[in-house]
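Retro notes (design track)

What went well: tokenization of the new backbones is finally stable.
What didn't: we kept losing track of which sequence belonged to which structure.
Fix going forward: every design gets posted as structure first, then sequence, in one message. First example under the new rule, 214 residues:
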């Protein structure tokens, strides 16, 4: 009996969903949903590396430690709740005039396998915060590409070139591209090129995180 009451009290104090958003460990978490270790390990990306084809680029966090773990769970572990947290670190410079957020699309085959586009989830959380709509139909992935992880910079650029096709509705639009992780920038550059080629007025880009190591 006492045991049952104690168990009930514990459930009240520590509801079952009290697990850190990034590492998934049950722990004492703060109001952002992170454990102390993850919270301390986060590094903001203060010096985002410019892209070739976008008018501006910004990234929220550095892709390392707990952030890598969180992104991995978002992409491969169905942990969709990681997306709003990542979005909360993206700061869009006030001088960027944008009227649509376009997440980097997945090829339909990968989308079908994963069940969702992780970048679209991040985009939708950012959209709620900054009041700019997400328009996924402005860009599609027209070619299936191998995963970029094992490639160097030149190979990445070659692999992704021409992989995107912009919709004619992109003409005259001021677009903010969004990717989950920026590595060499080849993906965002290739997408920006496709949109500009279609007549977009301006293309800016952002990523939830940027990795400085590749
Ligand atoms: Zn954690």
């Amino acid at each position: 009996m006492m045991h049952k009451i104690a168990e009930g009290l514990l459930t009240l104090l520590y509801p079952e969903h009290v697990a850190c958003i990034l590492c998934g460990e049950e722990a004492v978490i703060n109001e952002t949903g992170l454990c102390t270790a993850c919270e301390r390990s986060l590094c903001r990306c203060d010096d985002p590396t410019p892209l070739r084809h976008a008018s501006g680029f910004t990234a929220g966090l550095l892709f390392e430690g707990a952030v890598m773990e969180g992104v991995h769970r978002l992409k491969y572990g169905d942990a969709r709740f990681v997306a709003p947290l990542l979005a909360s670190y993206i700061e869009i410079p006030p001088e960027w005039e944008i009227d649509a957020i376009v997440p980097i699309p997945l090829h339909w085959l990968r989308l079908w396998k994963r069940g969702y586009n992780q970048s679209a989830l991040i985009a939708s959380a950012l959209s709620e915060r900054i009041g700019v709509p997400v328009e996924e139909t402005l860009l599609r992935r027209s070619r299936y590409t191998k995963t970029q992880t094992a490639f160097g910079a030149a190979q990445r650029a070659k692999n992704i070139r021409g992989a995107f096709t912009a919709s004619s509705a992109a003409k005259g639009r001021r677009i903010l591209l969004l990717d989950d992780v920026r590595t060499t920038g080849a993906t965002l550059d290739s997408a920006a090129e496709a949109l500009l080629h279609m007549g977009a007025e301006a293309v800016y880009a952002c990523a939830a995180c940027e990795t400085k190591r590749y």
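Added context from the reviewer: Strands lie at 57-62, 100-103, 139-141, 164-166, 174-182, 202-210.
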